[in-house]
Amino acid sequence: MIEDLNVSGMRKNKHLSEKINEAKFYEIRRQLEYKSKWNNVDLLIADRTYTSSKTCSHCGSIKKKLSLSERIYKCEDCGFEIDRDLNASINLKNLAYAT
Fold first, then answer.
1. Residue 55's beta-bridge partner residues?
2. Which of 1, 21, 28, 69 is the 20 to 30 Å CA partner of 39?
């Protein structure tokens, strides 16, 4: 499971644009698609509108705003706290199992 990221929108952030370009997200996705097809494995791609970072992996509530500087996800409803990226990865795993 991977996310369909809005890379062109991410490049607009002057502090991250160089690192975004260096990451070569398109090449990573291309390779994953190629290798998945080669090995007869389904590659699931989460839609851009899926709020993996803003959704609480514990209770499912969605935060309205989550700034990039917030590295710890704190749920306003249930009080659950977790690393932002780990929270997003759990949500993507759950989405993959639901599909």
1. 62
2. 21
Supply the pTM of this predicted model: 0.77
Give the number of domains in the chain: 2
**Tally of CA atoms within 13 A in the half-sphere of 53 that contains its CB:** 15
Considering the domain architecture, whether residues 61 and 43 belong to the same structural domain is answered as no
Question: Are the C-beta atoms of residues 93 and 79 closer than 8 Å to each other?
Answer: no
- Residue among 81, 58, 59, 57 nearest 70 (CA): 81
24 and 60 in a common domain = no
HEC sequence for 16-83: CHHHHHHHCHHHHHHHHHHHHHHCCCCCCEECCCCCCCCECCCCCCECCCCCCCCCEEECCCCCCEEE
Tokens of 52: 């993996």
pLDDT tens digits, one per residue of 44-76: 999 989 999 999 999 999 999 998 889 999 999
Residue 40 zone, left/alpha/beta (φ > 0; ψ -120 to 50; rest): left
